[in-house]
Amino acid sequence: MALPLTSSTRLADHRDAFVELRCGACAHQREVRADALARMLGWETPLMARLERFRCSRCGARRVEIRLGYVRRSRG
Ligand SMILES: [Zn+2]
Q: What residues pair up with 67 in beta bridges, in sequence order?
């Protein structure tokens, strides 16, 4: 399951999520845990406001799209 981001989405609202970063230029994709990202950006920072800081590690483009995902947990 992945959620689209709104301008007010903060990591603090999605502590269990991982963040999916996808390059709009070369489609390179990586996933970062919310707590790892929070160490760089802070829990309260609106993610959209920081989008321009992200850069594709493969091609260097600044067209990175962000989505939130949740790790499937075993039920029981
Ligand atoms: Zn790229």
A: 20
